[in-house]
Amino acid sequence: RKYFMKWIELMAEEQRAYVMRLLDALEVTDRDKRLKVARAILYLAQGVFDECDTEVDVLHWSRHNVFLLYDMGIFTALLELLSMEIDNSQACSSAVRKPAISLADSTELRVLLSIMYLMVETIRVQTEDDRPEWRSAREAFKNELGSPLYNGEPFALLLFTMVTKFCSMNAPHFPMKKVLLLLWKTILFTLGGFEELQEMKVRGRERLSLPPLPEDSIKVVRAMRAASPPASAMELIEQQQQQKRGRRSRRVPLVKQDSLDTYNERDPFKNDDARDEEEDPEDTDSGIEGEVDPLDRDVIIQPPPPPLKPPTERVNFPKGLPWAPKVREKDIEHFLETSRNKFIGFTLGNDTETLVGLPRPIHESVKTLKQHKYVSIAEVQIKREEELQQCPLTLGEEEVEETPTEMLYLGMLPNLSQYVIALLKLLLAAAPTSKAKTDSINILADVLPEEMPITVLQSMKLGIDVNRHKEIIVKAISALLLLLLKHFKLNHIYQFEIVSQHLVFANCIPLILKFFNQNIMSYISAKNSICVLDFPHCVVHEMPELTAESLEAGDSNQFCWRNLFSCINLLRILNKLTKWKHSRTMMLVVFKSAPILKRALKVKQAMMQLYVLKLLKIQTKYLGRQWRKSNMKTMSAIYQKVRHRLNDDWAYGNDIDARPWDFQAEECALRESIEKFNSRRYDRNKNGDFTPVDNCLQSVLGQRVELPEDFHYSYEMWLEREVFSQPIQWEGLLQNP
Predict the structure, then answer these.
(1) What is the distance, to the nearest Å, from the Cα of residue 236 to the centroid of all Cα atoms in its chain?
(2) Where is the Far11/STRP C-terminal domain (predicted)?
């Protein structure tokens, strides 16, 4: 009778006994039986939805079961099965020979990866009502995934191997979407997200005795509000025609930042009219305004606005700029060098303290610059590395902390370029701007059915599935690359630089620009999802009949969070690659990125606009006076939203950087520094020239020397040939050289 009881009615001991039987059954040799057991485990991880009435119940039992499965050792068993499937040469060779690969070729892999993804993601997310044993299980699982416990390497390395194997066409049946999602969530879990990164950065600065950060960047960006996008030529023409017809429209000022939480209620991408270009003088002084639909005004403005005041007082903006300005040490050195050359006629190298002979205003300027001086962790690491390279014997061995980031880098280092190229290949294949080519990799192996659709409805559903599939791949890769760059940069700047250089050499910069060279508004507002098929909605509620009309209508969301997330990640990656790199900034200019980036400003989301404006700022001085003159609204937005460097002439470019654009020389110099760092820190056969020599006769003669087995047979011959027959002039030792 117990066999017919519901899972949710079983006692904890009975549930554990059942999971133990499933664990034993996973080890059977019959492939079909093993798959059946794996599906049963997947059903448990998905929350035994057949016994639940609401979505909340499904999620509750999913969480309960996942922690139970982890406690019983299911993850380790699944990992062994996954390794076996990866090494299954028969499946790989049959997939390579197949003309068309479908869902049926990756059934076992998809079931295993789905369970592992559910376990990683469920355990990763903390909730307030977590039991104490669940919290300890989370820490244990996090340490397991980040440590080299699985075949001597972290779990993420196994997934990276799957990615490279797929991209080299050796395993075209691998379900890449699931692999990439699991890889992203594993890195997110083991290394930490952006909140953890910020905390690690604060602790790192304290450890190095650096001043605290001037502000919390996450909070600043959250408080920022979107700017009105620049008007296009078509909008200007329409606005002129409206003025001729005597139509006037009333502006409604935005009092508060568009909270991300309110985006579902209002349209953040409504194109502003061109009247923004011709504002009243008082509007211009107040900065760039976002527009609010009068019907939705109560959603944003709470409490209701007070009675109208005179126009000069109608908008109360916060005082000051969002970011504290920063100055680097080398900027102060450059400023003093220029001032000394001008007023004294000679320089004092890197001395930033001596101000003798300089006029009073220069003293004040230096004082202001020093007040805003910012020393980054990267600068300290570079300086320390130079010292270690110069004095390897005096400073001795560097103590390297075995953090999850350090262990991941150490595992990735031998095949780092392969991993980066594979990820960019997948990103290119999934980009909406990519054209299908015969030699490109097939990323649709885990979305295409065995039998192609025969009706219009099936075709529409498959089309939505394919687009959604590509969007998820872009989301996972963009988030993964950004996380790796940020964590490696915090761990050591040269770890970040080698990943960045591999990305640049693999044409990541033009690839991202190509991604944005599309109708970005359409991409952000794409509706490639079918709500009624989303889990757990589809397993709890009655399935309505799908029609072509309902599929075409899509969901009620006005934009797609997934695509917005991907766009912001790609912009941040581009920023990471080009920041403080003159040659890479010139690549943005050469690839004509300005009009592409300017179109992306039409998306009225503050965070995305911030990273677009950063990319425009670093190349503004190279775009010419005419561009700046015709893009004053963009220039104002940069001034408002992007951090200021006090002696950066980005907006004027009077003395345009005269340095030659020698891409190869800059990258070679950087590569040399990276290779020295890797050799010093990770090369086990390093410092051969500095190996101490033993000069003690007794010590040398007392060492055991490994001799070949047959040496004693020819020992006498060796003595005769090498010792007795060689005349030794002992008196030569007494003579002066």
Answers:
(1) 38
(2) 359-715
